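I had to read the description of the data format several times before I understood it. For illustration, here is how one protein appears when written out as sequence plus structure tokens:
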Amino acid sequence: MHGRGVRRAAQALAQAGATEGKGRNSKPAELQEQPGSSRPRPSSPMLEPLLGRRVHTVVADTKIADDGKVEDPGHIQYQTSESERRRDPQLAPAIGHSRRTDALAPRPERFKVSGTLPDGKPFLVNALKGAAIEAGDDKIIDHARVSRVIDHGEMTDEQIAQMKAVQQRPIFPAYETSGAQESNCVHAHAHVARTVFDWNVQPERHARPQDLAVQMTHLRTRDESGKPAIRGEALRDSREAKDAGEE
């Protein structure tokens, strides 16, 4: 009897110690010390909403070898935010211009295109021309391929309605890789910029996604007062406006 009493007392003491320790460490996960950290890491409940309200231009850069051969044509598209899609659940997550590759798509034309890039470097690409997808069916650029992201701000209700109209059909009837016929993703992205947002962007014929991104870096859906951006304000950031200012 004496031995069992001792064991029970020891177990009670051990249980009390564990309970006390648990009470001392019962902080929310975001306030507990992280491994390798000298102090608790506070949570930011406003961080996600702030990051998730805006439409973006997302770019995968064109990659070209030293000999001028295009290894990856890259891509450029608009990506809408969760907040904007909550305002209109029919709004597509990505809106862009690509060639149809489904089983029923017409066989594309194949040809070589050579020319000069906006920076003066020569290029050669194995181009494809074929029927285009509906803009709202564009696949989201894989995160590993993303080279740059431009935050344009939150779309107005009118801009969302216009973007939803754009997504329901191909931006151009056909897609062609090089831009020679001004029907690739770059020229389509600029077309949407002009028609939906009134941004006066005019890419050169063989502009790459990263070249158009430079023109669009400072373009916003609204001006500083919160009003929708108008064409005159967008002109300040266009290549034509900068050229005119140098005259």
Remarks:
- Confidence is low (pLDDT under 50) at residues 16-51, 230-247.
- The longest helix spans residues 2-24.
- The radius of gyration is 27 Å.
- The first strand starts at residue 56 and ends at 60.
